[in-house]
Amino acid sequence: MKHRTLGTPGLRVSEIGLGCMGMSEFYGPSSEAESIGTIHRALELGIDFLDTADIYGPFKNEKLVGRAIRDRRDRVVLATKFGNVRNAQGQSLGIRGDPDYVRQACDASLERLGVDHIDLYYQHRVDTKVPIEETVGAMAELVRAGKVRHLGLSEAAPETIRRAHATHPITALQTEYSVWTRDVEENDVLSTVRDLGIGFVAYSPLGRGFLTGRFKTFEDLPADDFRRRNPRFQGENFDHNLELVREVEQMARQKSVTPGQLALAWVLARGDDIVPIPGTKHVTYLEENFAAAGVELSKADIERLDAVIPVGAATGTRYTDMSLVHR
After folding, report:
1. Is 319 an active-site residue?
2. 53, 125, 231, 311: which could join 81 in a potential S-S bond, CB 3.0 to 4.6 Å?
């Protein structure tokens, strides 16, 4: 597994990371033993960039990741997030970015993870009630205290990114990005981070699994899967977006790769400053994703994929409530 450098501060991570969210929530039932085995296999393969957040579970995912890396912390680049507030029952309590909460959330994450520092600490969503300078200022205090090594933002708007970066260097911005989710190319988010020397971490690079071709009907989604409430997986949107996936499947067959590998290779080809973090709780899918790093796309391949799935081709918003992204 090759490595890439995130941001001017220079955080070296595997060119493909591992999103751990689905190991604890949102994507149907899971096995903790299998999830930990998947994390261990990722490290064996050289995938060292693990992504979690305090609200996944809620709180359970950080504990799971902590148990998985307890005896191999030195082999992991560990990223977690704060800002989306939930109680133990899973109820959303809003967004907080006030300094007191930043400090409180960090200490709680360190305890759950069982580590003495976090390699990359993101603000999960921007709190518009608090100036970004105050939030990032508090995050910078965590760096000076040795609790955090690098700072990140998630789903932030260009002006917010610039103000945050002027307060303390931001190493990475995390935002959804895939062949069917390319709004960051249109709203200046991607150009802004590149102008500032900030790395880009692409979550849901497989379109929440849809681009793998595994879902042919709405009923293929587990009963408790949050995608059943996601606009892109609803009714006519599902049918329209499935036609896009069929285009990916056809091209993948011609290249003798899986649709998911083709989708991941597309993200990797967008630039060395971009690191996708596909999520999975299964070793089989992890190994399939790992192999995507070896898929080479020619200029003609990329142009063809861009032609069959142009910007804005997917129908349905990314979330039921899009007011919380790009703030």
Report:
1. no
2. 53
